[in-house]
Amino acid sequence: MVRATPPLPLHEIEVPVPNGLSPFAIGTFDEIGSFTRARFPHRHDFYEILFLTGGGGVHVVDFEPYEIEPNSVYVLAPGQVHFWKDSELITGRVLVFAEEFLLVHPGGLLPAPGGSPLLRLDDAQAAQVEEVLDDIDREYRSRDPGYATMLQAHLHILLVRIQRLRQAHPRVPASSSIVWRFTRLVTKHVLAERSVTAYAERVGVTAGHLTDLVRAALGTTPGAVIRAALALEAKRLLAQTELSVAQIAHALGFEDPSYFGRFFKREAGASPGDFRRDIREKYQLAHDL
């Protein structure tokens, strides 16, 4: 039975749509809007690429803290929860787009859900990224004939460039198109479907082959990816809602709250109650509810 989880704050794109295509925008943090520096946890219905050139504080993505530093690139997927803590003078560029705006299927070009959203660059690498962002920005503002197609082409180049830079960092694994599709499906449908076989059928391979691909790309198993996605949804609800543990267990499809408690402690290393208390205390989230 599918459960409907209570909605968390969702930011939708409120920008011009090029030539009637899917939403796309680029600009400074000030130009894109207040949500770009939001200090409260929220999630997006679009992809967001952040290129930071200055500022201080902490950027928290799915409850993992990242120190704000220049020459940092974040690639955030739809549904990820993030916010800024103790941040000041954040500068750089923000690029937002819907998946449908891409020229090709994003598998292989975007990091698999669950991977690190952060890529730190040296000055030469940052210059490579900034060069493409400059091209995108000029095309976006000029609105010359055919600019939507040009934006799609430049976005494709940017994603390839970021992917190459990610592959240059051994700690950032690359993912195949099939693995990306699998992990993306899990993030979208984990509340309704938790069968490895079912996901394998959706991406057109056997369960055994999917297991081999996920192990090679991510160093884990499809089942572990599914469990991690479910635990992440639980963390989001524990941190950002006043639902009881039993209500959250029910919302996530667990008939037995005690089983949910054991599952969560195994995945998160703490009981649901302890996690809620500790995460709210760490990030002062209770004041935002």
TrEMBL record:
Note the superkingdom of the native organism.
Bacteria
| Alphabetized PANTHER family for the sequence | ARAC-FAMILY TRANSCRIPTIONAL REGULATOR, TRANSCRIPTIONAL REGULATORY PROTEIN
**Which SUPFAM superfamilies does the protein's record reference?**
Homeodomain-like, Regulatory protein AraC
Molecular function as annotated in GO:
DNA-binding transcription factor activity; sequence-specific DNA binding
User: What protein name applies here?
Assistant: AraC-like DNA-binding protein
Give the matching InterPro entries: AraC-bd (IPR003313), Homeodomain-like_sf (IPR009057), HTH-like (IPR037923), HTH_AraC (IPR018060), RmlC-like_jellyroll (IPR014710), Tscrpt_reg_AraC-type_HTH (IPR020449)
- Keyword vocabulary terms for this entry: DNA-binding, Transcription, Transcription regulation
Q: Which Gene3D superfamilies does UniProt cross-reference here?
A: Homeodomain-like (1.10.10.60), Jelly Rolls (2.60.120.10)
Query: Where does the HTH araC/xylS-type domain lie?
Result: 180-278
The species this protein belongs to is Actinokineospora auranticolor
